[in-house]
Amino acid sequence: MTNTDSANVNCPLWRRLLALLYDLLAVLAIVMVVGYACQRMTGGHLITTDAHAHIAWWYQPLQALVVSAYFVVSWMRGGQTLGMRPWRIRLTARDGGPLRLSQALLRLAVAALPLLLLGLTPWIGPRAAAWAVVAAWTAWFGLAAIDPLRRAVQDVIARTEIRKLG
Predict the structure, then answer these.
(1) Which one of 33, 36, 38, 83 is most buried, counting C-beta atoms within 10 A?
(2) Are 154 and 111 in contact (CB under 8 A)?
(3) What's residue 2's pLDDT?
(4) Are 11 and 89 in contact (CB under 8 A)?
């Protein structure tokens, strides 16, 4: 594929970021539904407070699993999340075919890697840790601005591409 061909096929960064913004709304809805269901199942004792708030040990891993499932299932079933559909873009393997499960899981893990920076919160504070995550994701997606195939870090590592449709 020549650079001219890839410019017509590969998704520009602005389009994938807008799709991600749409997906953020879907993720917020998922998190709220799971949170509500967990509150109902625990009789309202999911979060307890005394001097500090305590969240049930299983709640955050459950939320991570459900949000991860949203992305992996969407990518495996047609290559599109809800946010990608209105922007007419699709995630594919490097050859243009569908993703393998291993690619989807690797892509998810690499895309989520900056979230580990939140572990710095006890030492640098919540605001600085949040900005560290934003800076890392800026670098992750910033690669798409200079890569000839417009791939972000997770795409390069998982050997995937986001392509425009039609």
Answers:
(1) 83
(2) yes
(3) 42
(4) yes
Global pTM value: 0.88
Q: pLDDT digit string (tens) for 93-130?
A: 999 999 999 999 999 999 999 999 999 999 999 999 99
Long-range CB contact pairs, 11-16, < 8 A, 24+: 11/89, 11/150, 11/161, 11/162, 11/163, 11/164, 12/150, 12/164, 13/141, 13/144, 13/145, 13/150, 15/87, 15/89, 15/164, 16/87, 16/89, 16/141, 16/144, 16/152, 16/162
- Please report, rounded to a whole number, the percentage of residues in the chain having pLDDT higher than 90: 81
Report the 10 Å Cβ neighbour count for 26: 16
Q: How many Cα atoms are found within 13 Å in the side-chain-facing hemisphere of 5?
A: 2
- For residue 42, CA distances in Å to 33, 35, 62, 133, 150 come to 14, 11, 14, 32, 45
